[in-house]
Amino acid sequence: MAYDAGTNWAGNLAYGASMVHEPTSVDEVRRIVAAAGSIRALGSRHSFNAIADGTDELLSTAALTGPVRINRETSTVTAGAGIRYGELATELDRAGFALANLASLPHISVGGAVATGTHGSGNRNRSLAAAVVGLELVTADGDLVKYDAGDPDFAGIVINLGSLGVVTSIELEIEPAFEVQQTVFERLPLEALLGNFDGVTGAAYSVSVFTTWRDADVIDSVWVKHRPDRDDPLAETLFGAVRAEDERHPLPGIPPVGCTPQLGVPGPWYNRLPHFQLDFTPSNGVELQSEYLVPRRHAVDSIRTLRGLSAEIAPLLQVNEIRTVAADDLWLSSSYGTDAVGLHFTWVQDQPAVEALLPKIEAALRPFQARPHWGKLFTAGAHDLDRLYPKLEDFRLLTKRLDPDGVFANPFSTEVAGS
């Protein structure tokens, strides 16, 4: 089946492809790709830039969701790349298993999140892509190729930006299911965060810090996701922040409809690690997103830098989320070779104003080796990214080897990644 391309999740980008294919089988994917001169995979459309645009055709992975196969001996699960994390998580939990980490939204597809290096939060939690131990990829000539952890170039294939082919299935590490208690602390003094950054982010299994920068000296809230089986009990206060008396939304003043349960009530991992529930589409109206990840050693200086820009950031900002990510060895990971801190911005949907501000933020963060999230808005080009990603040239060579005729190439891959 093929249909008009439409827009991305936020509506800020209209895809230029003449059609979108929606195959229901791997064999159909192979036939479509083999016949295409210019095509690219499309996941759950949650990218805010043109990473999945600029080709004659698009191939949606939305119908490539199963089957979900759990291997208890190897503690892995294999599923179609189009399955959403929330859907995979409920199946895993029913079988007594869990993923170690989830992003703030359970609505995103596994394949798309992995391909763009999306991550969750936690001092010891790696990016979502770091859980991948195998995948199947349809290459430009329609061949189906299986890659496993330990294979040559595997670390370059996992986060692939859609430039290597169409991923049809992914194998992930899993672990026994666990419970999480979510507690929100409010009004953390900024200096308390900066003076106790390790203590705040290490207060529990997963921690997210939210601020609007409207009061530049106070952090609005800290969302603490506590694993009773691993973490020490929480204190009544968190470095001066106090527990919220009612459930909260990450954006101050917004009703918490659709947010995952809080107030320290224990619940399953998949309904606490994300900020939002799967059956609710979270958006404060329309929005744009950017994110920059800095090595953890630069966390405090980077946050101080944002505080210095707060007067310019706040008028365009819905909320700034600060999260930690553990290091991995994936070539295009924003936490490649270093523990990282994500500085995530949810903007109002004024794209010209946001894009005018981003170069100033990027210039201010440049001394801290800030790597942009591949699926969000940024202005850095290949020249800047070469400095930030030591394996980027290796990725370009890998792309030329797997896709010599540029079937999966688009303006994003050539202008941004240089591949």
UniProtKB/TrEMBL annotation:
<protein>
    <submittedName>
        <fullName>Xylitol oxidase</fullName>
        <ecNumber>1.1.3.41</ecNumber>
    </submittedName>
</protein>
<dbReference type="InterPro" id="IPR006094">
    <property type="entry name" value="Oxid_FAD_bind_N"/>
</dbReference>
<dbReference type="Pfam" id="PF01565">
    <property type="entry name" value="FAD_binding_4"/>
</dbReference>
<dbReference type="InterPro" id="IPR010031">
    <property type="entry name" value="FAD_lactone_oxidase-like"/>
</dbReference>
<dbReference type="InterPro" id="IPR016169">
    <property type="entry name" value="FAD-bd_PCMH_sub2"/>
</dbReference>
<feature type="domain" description="FAD-binding PCMH-type">
    <location>
        <begin position="13"/>
        <end position="177"/>
    </location>
</feature>
<dbReference type="Pfam" id="PF04030">
    <property type="entry name" value="ALO"/>
</dbReference>
<dbReference type="GO" id="GO:0003885">
    <property type="term" value="F:D-arabinono-1,4-lactone oxidase activity"/>
</dbReference>
<dbReference type="GO" id="GO:0050582">
    <property type="term" value="F:xylitol oxidase activity"/>
</dbReference>
<dbReference type="InterPro" id="IPR036318">
    <property type="entry name" value="FAD-bd_PCMH-like_sf"/>
</dbReference>
<dbReference type="GO" id="GO:0016020">
    <property type="term" value="C:membrane"/>
</dbReference>
<dbReference type="GO" id="GO:0071949">
    <property type="term" value="F:FAD binding"/>
</dbReference>
<dbReference type="InterPro" id="IPR016167">
    <property type="entry name" value="FAD-bd_PCMH_sub1"/>
</dbReference>
<dbReference type="GO" id="GO:0080049">
    <property type="term" value="F:L-gulono-1,4-lactone dehydrogenase activity"/>
</dbReference>
<dbReference type="InterPro" id="IPR007173">
    <property type="entry name" value="ALO_C"/>
</dbReference>
<dbReference type="InterPro" id="IPR016166">
    <property type="entry name" value="FAD-bd_PCMH"/>
</dbReference>
<dbReference type="InterPro" id="IPR016171">
    <property type="entry name" value="Vanillyl_alc_oxidase_C-sub2"/>
</dbReference>
<keyword id="KW-0560">Oxidoreductase</keyword>
